[in-house]
Specification:
heterodimer, A: 565 residues, alpha/beta, Rossmann fold, 6-stranded parallel sheet, B: 157 residues, alpha+beta, Alpha-Beta Plaits, 4-stranded antiparallel sheet, 4 helices, 27% helix
Chain lengths: 565, 157
Amino acid sequence: MQISGAQMVIEALIAEGVDTVFGYPGGAIMNVYDEIYKQDKFQHILNRHEQAAVHAAEGYAKASGKVGVAMITSGPGFTNAVTGLADAYMDSIPLVVISGQVPMSLIGTDAFQEIDAVGISRSCTKHNYLVTDAADLPRILKEAFYIASSGRPGPVHVDIPKDVTAQIAEFNYDIDLNLETYKPHVKGNPRQIKKAMEAIAKAKRPLFYLGGGIINANAAYDVRDFVHKTGIPAVETFMARGTLAHDDDLLIGMLGMHGSYAANMAMSETDLIIALGARFDDRVTGKLSEFAKNAEVIHVDIDPASISKLVNADFPIVGDVKNVVLEMLEQVDKIDAERYESWRETINNFDELHPLTYHEDSERLKPQWVIERVGELLGDDANISTDVGQHQMWTAQFYPFSRPRQFISSGGLGTMGFGFPAALGVRAASPDKISINFTGDGSILMNCQELMTAVEKKLPVINIILNNNFLGMVRQWQTLFYDKRHSETDLSVQPDFVKLSEAFGGIGYRVRTKEEFDAALKDAVEKGVVAFIEVLVERFENVMPMVPAGGSLFNMMLLEKKESK
Amino acid sequence: MSENARRVISVIVVNEASVLSRVTDLFSGRGYNITSLTVAPIPDSKYSRLTIVTSGSVRVMEQITKQLHKLIPVLRVYEHEDMVEKEMAMVKFPITENLSDINAISEAYNGKIVNVGDNIVIAMVADEPKRVDNYLNAIKRYNPKEIVRSGAVALER
């Protein structure tokens, strides 16, 4: 059929099964918004900032496992969205972001709201397109969805000049994509898999190192099966939280800069790392030359560029982690779970020596208590998002995650302002779960305008603001490494968060005690309206334990020992 | 190979807009310089061949090669070790110089005088990049006015 470029966008989104689009209109994308107005196949959520629209699409994608879609205009609309693209790129989140562009005839003339969008997005997307002819649109959009969701997922940006959205051309979405130059390697090499299984059977102190790729590949339940059948203990990265349930006996905990002592010691003592969908990030390894010195490495990853990038892999396996784990499960009888009994005991001793905990020794509430308490009260019923900073690390440490896709946070890029809009996307994708966003008094102000989106679209995200009147994580580093010179991190001058929420039509609570917190959370859940729960927490609490930047994993700063918890 | 040794990489890419920037971004983003770069379409196909001469550590080059593979329009990447490598150069001389010398030297490097104007002559040579260096040294005494090098092209043996 002969339709306009703008109509093609709508038809393609419908054909891809998109049910929610996040976005913000503007001059160059108006033709497409005109077609959005005329259709009723998907909902459009009007965020109040383009960055938030992309974060919301990320939250939607992470919670649902589908491709998230965001739509924005040219110029400032696009540049506002760049942080979201970069965030999705770092965390391998499948997105298709469609931006308007000035008409072809004006490109390169410094036209109103013109910016070289594909030039900017090139380095922070998996792929991008500038559409110069509406006849190419069906193929480009189909490729965009395919590339975003296959292989190592990531954001794809499609920039469409305004005249192309008005151009009439033939639309046929029934295209056989033949991308000769893009063929993701999904099946692991059987010989390598066999060798890896033999190495596992021979190892004395093997350790699973579970990464976010497992969740992207929908492989968490197969990995659980594999871990249980082998009896090999496991550490999780920040991005992998929820792969194993929090109460799994074989889960040691999170490793890395703010990982548990036991997890980091296990990594330092292991003789065989079984890395599944993890990428040996600097926040995980600490000082590379001291990292897991005595270990051989099995590295399973869909991205060949991640293998042997930082740590040499003795058994590299390029493939989809789900496929590879299923293959490994077929050979699991080679492995005797009894064999690792004393290794598991060693790790338990590490944990008893320095368990992950905190002290309740202040007048004000401890932030860790708040997170644990939400876990006790809501547990599996909540999806958990976070912003970036101390509260984020405490959430990863103390929330009892029980399933994959329960925890949504900005890991790679560390984007303050991510949490609230992402939680809106999470809620849109899974309305049957309570959507909690743990945030800080710094982060929440970076996208607080999303209160309006939440009120308008009835997305009752509960934002728990752990307020220490500090830009806490930077303050912690200043305390520890800059001789307590708290440069520009004191956030004592603040808005009234209760009134702020109320001004938009949300609800707000200011909480000082445990009783007040329980009551506020209960009330917010019952009311089902977007909420700010501001919790006044201990100002100088540090995230512990900690591997100082550039330090070795086994050389952690630890929580001081005290009797009380 | 030693750290920061000279390296030659060939990349086969789909011949489309923006593909060159995708490739060169991987170098510039790491602060790596490209010594020379040639691009031309491969006959009877939708592909082009890039030849990149650069230098860098083994580890970073391996990363760049893998990242090149990851680019959607990249079909193949060769990090050459055993190759035939050629480069062309053209040099402009005043017509008053000793033309038979210039021609004779150029012939030693697979070239000759290819153009004669009112005031200048142009000689071209095509040889291994190292030998082109030698040629350019040898002709210094004939007052070359302008020199252009094409950048290297390479084929694996």
